[in-house]
Amino acid sequence: MDIITQALGNVANIFDLCFLFWCIVLLYLSLKKCFLKNRKGKVRLFLISAFTNPIVMYVVSIYAMIIPLAVVIFVFNLEDYEKTNQGTILIINVIAGSFLYMFLTLMFSRLVGKWLKAPNRSLVTFVYLMFGVFFSVMIRGYSDETLEASLPAFVLSIASTTVLFIASWLLYHFVIKALSQLTDKKREVNTKIFLIPPVIFNLTYVSLAFTNYKLSFESTTIVYIFSTIIIFLFIWAFYVIIRNINATNEAIEAKDEVKTLSVEVMEALAHTIDAKDKYTNGHSVRVAKYSRMIAEKMGLSAEMCENIYYMGLLHDIGKIGVPNEIINKPAKLTDEEYDVIKTHPGIGYGILSEIKSRPDLATGALWHHERYDGKGYPEHKAGEDIPLEARIIAVADTYDAMTSNRSYRKYLPQEKVRSEIENNIGTQFDPEAARCMLTVIDDDKDYVLHET
Asked: Is residue 185 within 8 Å of 118, Cβ to Cβ?
C-alpha cells in the first residue's frame, strides 16, 4: 500500500506541475487571442504570462507574509511566538496575504492590459481572475499529515486536477473565444460588474489556503465538489453573458450599418435632386448641415438634431416633379412658372409620406417655405403652427440661398446675409431659430459657411 500511495503521490505532484504549466500556456494563448492583434511580441507575451500569472502572485504573497514575520521573531527574539500568538498570525496571514494576492493580480493584469493597449482593460483582468479561480482551487491542499499520505487523498487530488484540466479547456474553448469576438469590437463594454464573482471566489479560496485549516477527508471532498460546481457555473454564466453581449453588439452594429446606408442613400438622393439645377449643387447637403447646427444651438436632443439633418437632406425632393426647363430657366419666371415651382413642397410630401418607417421626413419637405407671419406656401401656416423642424429648415434654406453663387451674382457678403436674417426675425423667420442662425454666423469668423 505504501508503494501505491507513494506512486499516486508522485502522479499527483506531476499532475499539479503539468496543470501549472498548462495554466501558463492557456493564459498566454488567451491573452494572445483576445488582445495581441499583431504578430510581434509573442515571446514577450509568453514571458509576461509566465511571470505575472496568479501562481506567481500567490508565491509572492506567501513570502511577503513570511519574511517580515521571520524578521520580527529574529530581531525581538520571541520564544514560542507561534504558540502564544497563533490566532494573531492566522488573522494577519489570512487578511494581508489574501488581499496582497488579489492586489498583485489586479495590478499586474492592468499593467499587462496597458502594454497590450487593450481598449477595455477590465477584460484583461477578467482573464487573469478566471485563471486565478482554477489556481485557487488547486492550492487548497491538506494540512493534516496523515491525510496527506492517505490513498483516498491522492486519488481525490488527481481527480480534482483532472477536472481542472477539463474546466480550463472549456473556459478557453467557450468563454475566451467568445471574449475574443468582443475585444475585436471598437465599442467599449463595461465588464467591471462581472469581475466581482471571480474576485470573491479567489479571495475566499486563497484565504482557505492561507489559514491552512486541518480539514477531514470528507470536508475536503465537499470543498472540492462545491468548488467544481462553482467553476462550471462560472464558465456557463460568463459564456452566456459574453455571447449575449456579442449578439447585442452585432445587432447594434447591424442597425448602425443600416442607418449609415440610409444616410448615404439620402445624401445620394439629395445630390441627384440638386443636379437638376446647376446653380444649386450641394444645396440640400448644406441646408441639412446648417439645419443641424441651428438645432444644436437651440439645445435640441441629439436624436432630434439628426432627424432635422435628414429632413434637410430631402426637403427639396419634390423638385423631381418640376420640369427642368423651369428650374434652369435663366430669366425671371412667369407667374404660371412660379406656381409650378410652388408645387414642389406638396410633391415632396407625397413622395416622403410613403416612407412608413420615417413619416417625419415629409415634415420638412411640405412646410419649409412657410413664413412665420403666415405669408408663405403651400398652406399659409403661421407662427408655431408651423412644425419646429420646418421653421429651422426655412432659416437654413434662406441662408444657403444667399450664400450660394447664382448666374447673376456671387454669394453675398456675410454682413449682408446676417443683416437680412436679422431684419426678417418674426416675419419670415421663427425668432429663436433665426437668432441661433445669427449665432452660427457670428461663430463663423472666417466666413467658411458658403458655397465654395
From this structure: no
Per-residue pLDDT tens over the stretch 111-141: 999 998 888 888 999 999 999 998 888 875 4
DSSP 214: -
Closest CA to 305 of 427, 404, 436, 401: 436
Residue 344 CA to residue 352 CA, distance in Å, equals: 12
Q: Give the C-alpha distances (Å, rounded to integers) separating 421 from 2, 305, 309, 402.
A: 101, 21, 21, 10
The three-state secondary structure class of 425 is strand
Q: How far is CA 418 from the centre of its chain?
A: 42
Q: Which of 297, 294, 321, 322 lies closest to 308 in space, CA to CA?
A: 294
Q: Has this prediction a pTM greater than 0.85? A: no
DSSP string, 81-140: HHHHTHHHHHHHIIIIIHHHHHHHHHHHHHHHHHHHT-S-HHHHHHHHHHHHHHHHHHT-
The residue among 368, 326, 327, 366 whose CA lies nearest residue 350 is 366
Boundaries of every domain in the chain: 2-253, 275-443
Instruction: In whole angstroms, give the CA distance from residue 251 to residue 41.
Output: 34
Q: Are 355 and 314 a contacting pair, CB within 8 Å?
A: no
Contact call for residues 428 and 398 (beta carbons, < 8 A): yes
Q: Phi-psi category of 380—alpha, beta or left, where left has phi over 0 and alpha has psi -120 to 50?
A: left
Superfamily of domain 275-443: Hypothetical protein af1432 (1.10.3210.10)
- Report the C-alpha gap between 98 and 61 in whole angstroms: 8
Let me know if 268 is exposed, middle or buried by CB neighbors in 10 A (0-12, 13-18, 19+).
exposed
| Residue that is written with C-alpha cell 521571520 in the block | 70
Q: Do residues 150 and 217 lie in contact, with contact meaning Cβ atoms separated by under 8 Å?
A: yes
CA distance 447 to 423: 20
Q: What is the pLDDT of residues 77-86, one digit of tens each?
A: 555 545 545 5
pLDDT of residue 266: 77
Give the tens place of pLDDT for each residue, 387-418: 999 999 999 999 999 998 876 678 899 999 99
The total number of residues shown for the chain amounts to 452
